Amino acid sequence: MLIGSKNKKRGLDYKNKNKRLISLENLIRSLNLKELKEIRKKIDSFINRTPCIYSEGLTRRTGKEVYLKLENLQMTGAFKARGNAYKLSILSEKELENGVVTASSGNHGLGLSRAAKLRGVKAKVLVPKNTPKIKIDKLKEYGADVLIKGDTYDEAVIEAKEIAGNEGCLYVPSFDDVDIIRGNTTLGFEIFEDVKSPGLILCPIGGGGGISGVSLARNIMSPSTQIIGVEAEGAASMFHSLRIGKRTSLKHISTLAEGIKVAQPGEIPFQLVKRYVKEVKTVAEEELKRAMIELLEQAKIVAELAGCASVAALNKIDKDSFEGPIVCVISGGNIDLELLNKILSA
Does 155 share its domain with 212? Predict the structure, then answer.
């Protein structure tokens, strides 16, 4: 049961509810191999077990074995389907009676909308103005009520929380949520099943929910594996937060990689990244575009710019600092065709 009986309080207290259910330390302590398997089993029928393929071209270029974890082939076209499938699977009918609402640059909204549709729950998704048409169209296909609000994801979050408070629906965060992160451990679980003892995992970072799940799975299944996060230079909120030692919000963000265009990392992900991720690299727009083209040419993979961040960072790592193969997480593939055409014709 949610905290409070009034609708407005129900909407505003989602964060306190999550803290009451499980603290960060309890989240860490509660996870073991058995629990990882249970989480994966719980959402097994609602997500794809995406392939982790060997890339001959990237291996040849880097001199290290490189594998690609293809979350662009996930249900909804991005890894966000995982956390949302788990989140809605553990909520009661009472908690979902007034529906769910969220803010999203697209991929989280797609994951939530699909999960809500499977549960027979109404979903409302607020997206910023720069959200690609392909993502908006897919949201509507899943039956979501789509509202375009704000210039950035963070502005859309403010509007979504207000709706949750006024209408009594449940606000579901994109990344700052222990249940979402628990669901995202399945991404790491699959990587470590398919690639034994990888030396390094490169993972894109927006708010930090995906890399948080991967790092928690790593702690259990392959402790020696290093994890490096990757952000766009124009939206490097986790990078700057780690540099100053506390979570910060960037005043200005600018990147075509809308899937990782976040001005402030999540509170829970920030703590997990600070504790478990070796470092965070940043990549320029041109590096993201080159990585997109390289994935198309070398592996015949269509990925959105955010999903290409891991490959864009391959030139920035110290390849002598670890042993074993590299896994690049291709976090999503929902790219706007008009943008794709512009990049390819530039």
Answer: no
Record the tokens describing residue 12, joined without a space: 């505003």
- pTM of the full predicted structure? 0.90
285, 300: one domain: yes
- Cβ-in-10-Å burial (0-12, 13-18, 19+) of 168 comes to middle
Return d(Cα 296, Cα 311) in angstroms, integer: 12
Pair (243, 326) in one structural domain = yes
In the predicted structure, residue 2 carries a pLDDT above the cut 60: no
Q: What is the pLDDT of residues 4-17, one digit of tens each?
A: 223 333 333 334 44
Query: Which one of 125, 151, 171 terminates a domain?
Result: 171
Q: For the stretch 7-35, what's the b/e string if a residue is b when 16 or more beta carbons lie within 10 angstroms of its beta carbon?
A: beebbbbbeeebeeeeeeeebeeebeeee
Q: Under a CB-based contact definition with an 8 Å cutoff, are residues 74 and 49 in contact?
A: no
Per residue in 267-321, pLDDT (tens digit) is: 999 999 999 999 999 999 999 999 999 999 988 999 999 999 999 999 999 999 9
Q: What is the mean pLDDT of residues 28-57?
A: 95
Identify whether residues 224 and 336 lie together within a single domain: yes
Residues of the chain above pLDDT 90, percent: 84
* Other beta carbons within 10 Å of 99: 16
- Per the CB < 8 A criterion, the answer to whether 221 and 36 are in contact is yes
